[in-house]
Amino acid sequence: MKNKLTYIVTTILISIITLAAWSTHSFAQEAGGATGFVYEIKFPENQQKEAGYFDLKMKPDQKQTVQIVLKNPSDKEIAVETSINGAKTNMNGVLEYGPIKLKKDESLKYDFVDIVEAPEKIVLAPNSEKTLDIDITMPKVSFDGLIVGGIQLKKADDDKQKTQNGANVINKYAYVIAMVLQETDTEVVPELNLNKVNAGQANARNVVYVDVSNVEANFLDNLSMEAQIMSDKSDEVLYETKKSSMRMAPNSNMTFPVSMQGEEMVAGKYRAHVLATSGSRKWEWTEEFEITKEEADKFNREDVGLVQEKGVNWLLIIGAAIGLFVIILVIFFIIRTIRKKREATKKAERRKKKKE
């Protein structure tokens, strides 16, 4: 490869404490640990159960302020940045409560970020504590189901960069505290919809994405998915991926990747057979899709595995070697022919002299 690839690996330490046996007034442990501070959740009266996160029973149009105590155990002043994020589902079927670039699902009616507010930054003096106020304003209209999100707490400018094996590694340490908001006890049954199947890339590798959505306001637990990719003219399975023990957030989207196993993407028409289960529930689809030549060319150029393989082009090397051999052979015969002509000329001159 002519160009050196630089990988930036971002490691996020997520602390969502969910042990119900813990006291609801205990501080986060390790005297600040890698974050430099600790926190304590002050649970209000409408907390539904003992947990390490907010689980609140609310009313329509209710306004409430909940609190998190932040403590700086060090001898230096620190600033803590906060961010409010709606719960999403990543491509591995894992819930994300922190800031992440994933699209919102079209079924999302009440976004967590529109309901919950907090200061963007809070400064803690050395060996001090402050209370972080988090304001909640519920929708005016009553709803069934859950509104879910997270509050991320991160030390300001805590992007510790180092070099490891020639790659840039950025470590970001943060706490993320989940929050679940609910008004009624009406049971909401999660529902899975297939949106589309399309070509793409995951971690710079060619994949086929199966795009699905949990369109109801409740968690979809213990989700298993199996996806098979075939040509539109054959039942032979070209690519297949299975995954179990996944979970989807309420009203969230997941792009489930089917690996192409390091192969080049080929333009054409395909079929995807998708089977999903959750407990006794089952969803099954067969979806046709197309990979265009433009898509295939683009993703093949960007696939890291293919680029690395193409770094040593054996066909080109063999072709060059054969070409060089032919050139040497031609030069050899030319030189040989010239020498023979010279020898023949010399012999002719000797014979001529002898006759004279």
UniProtKB/TrEMBL annotation:
UniProt-listed Pfam families: WxLIP_HBD, WxLIP_PGBD
Give the domain of life.
Answer: Bacteria
Q: Which residues form a coiled coil?
A: none
Q: Which UniProt keywords apply?
A: Membrane, Signal, Transmembrane, Transmembrane helix
| Domain spans labelled WxL Interacting Protein peptidoglycan binding | 40-155
Q: Where are the transmembrane segments?
A: 314-335
All copies of domain WxL Interacting Protein host binding, residue ranges: 165-301
Keyword set includes Repeat: no
> Which InterPro entries does the record associate with it?
WxLIP_HBD, WxLIP_PGBD
Q: Which residues form the signal peptide?
A: 1-28
**Protein name in UniProt:** Uncharacterized protein
Q: What is the organism field in this record? A: Enterococcus rotai
